[in-house]
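Quick note —
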Amino acid sequence: MAKDKFVIHDDDKPVGRVLTRREVLGLLGGAGAAFFVGTGFKNLRVNQTATATPSTSVPGCVVRPAKTEGPYFVDEMLNRSDIRIEPSDGSIKEGIPLVIVFQVQQLDGTTCRVLEGAQVDVWHCDALGVYSDTTDPGFDTTGQKWLRGYQVTDELGTAQFTTIYPGWYQGRAVHIHFKIRTEPEAEDGYEFTSQLFFNEDMTDIIHAQQPYVEKGYRTLLNEDDGIFADDGDMLTLDVVENDDEELGGYKATFYITLDLNADPVTTGMGGGGNGGPGGGQPPAGGNGGPGGRPPGGGNGTPPNGTPPNSAPPAPPSGG
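Predicted structure written out below.
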C-alpha cells in the first residue's frame, strides 16, 4: 500500500481522553464490543461523551491486547467486503450471516483520531471448523479462498465485512482472526494482530441451527481457552440482530484504536486443547477431522447445556 493512502485528516478533532486505571477497571465490569484494542494498559482512552461507569458501553478510545496470529493466516490480498464468496465458482459459504464493522483510529498524543488507509484482514473457520486454503490432517482446502479478505479503512476509519458466524474446532473457543496493517507491502509498516470472541449464550443459539449443529456441541468454552485467557472479554463482540432484513443474521461493531508508536504486546499464547481445525494429530481414540463429533459422539447441545469434559492437551500455539 502506498504511503500517501495512509493519512489522518488535518481537520479531525480529538475524540477521547486518557482514562485512569480505576476508570478502566470499572469499565471492564460492563464488558462490551465497543472497546479499542492496542498494546496494554498504557494510554487507555474513552469518548469524552461517555460516562465511566461499569454499565457503560464505550464507543471511544480504549487500549486492548494483541493476540497470536495462529497457523492459518494466508496473505491472499483479496480486497472484498463479502468474504463468504468462493472466488473460483461464486458459491456462498453456508452459515448464519454476520456483518462486522471495524471502526479504526490511532492514538495521537493524549487523544485519538480517525485512521484512514489501513488494511484490515479477516479470516476464520467455517460452520464446521474448517479453514480455506489450508492443508490439515483432517482436510485439504488448498486453492479455496472463502472466509478470507481485506478492506481498507475509509475517511471515517470504517472497514466492513459480511461473513458468517464461525463454527468451532478442537482446542479453541469460537473466534475470528483479524490483522491491521498500515503499509502491508513495506517491511517497516505497523502491524497489529488479534482475535475476536463471542458470548457463549449467543453461540449456543447459533450453533443449535444448521449447519453448525452437525458438528455437535463445542468441546471448549471461552473460559478454558488459553488465548482468550484473562483479557478475552475485552475482545468479545456485542452481537445483535441485523436490521438488514434482506441479509438477515447478526451484526457487530468493533471499535479499535492503535498506538503506531509502540509494538503490540501479545497476551494469552496457549491454546485450550489439541489445536487445529482438523484437531491436529489427535491422541489415540481422540476426535478426528473438522466434521467429526466431539468426544461422546453427541449431536447438538449435551444434557444440561454443558460441554463434554474430555479436552485433549494444549497445543504449543493457538489457531
